[in-house]
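The material for today's practical consists of a large collection of protein records. An example says more than a description, so a record of this kind follows:
***
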Amino acid sequence: MNAYAVEGDSTAVATGTDATTTQPADGAEGASPSFFDSPMMLVGLGAVWIYLIYSMRKNKKKQKAAKEKLNELKKGNKIITIGRIHGTIVKLTDDTFTIKPDNKSDFTLTFDRSAIMTVIDENAKEGDKPEVEEGVAEKIEQK
C-alpha cells in the first residue's frame, strides 16, 4: 500500500525502506545468479561437447575409409582426379600414380595420390555415373 505524505497529514504511511529489509543477513550483495551459475549452462555445454565428439568420430571414419580406398588401388583401376580427368591407372608408387586418359595413345599423366577424387566401380553399369560431388565448374554452368 503506497501512500504519499501530505504536509500536515499525520495518518500518511511512509513508503521508504529501511536497511534491514534490503540487506541479506550475511552481508553479501543480493544479486541474482548469473547465467554461468544456472543448470541451463551445464546442459548447453554438455550438448556442445557431445556434438564435437560425434563430429570428430564421423570425420575420423571418413578419413579411414578414404585411406583404405587409396591403399586398395591397383593397376587397371579407373579413376577421376580432383581436376576431373578420367583415366586408367598404369603405374603406382607409394606417393604417386600414373594414368592413361586414352587407351589409344601413349600419353600419360602423373599425379600425387591425394589427387584421386573417385575410384570408378568396375561392377557399375556402363551408363551409370560415378558418385561425384558437384564441383565449381558445374555450379558456374548452372548459373
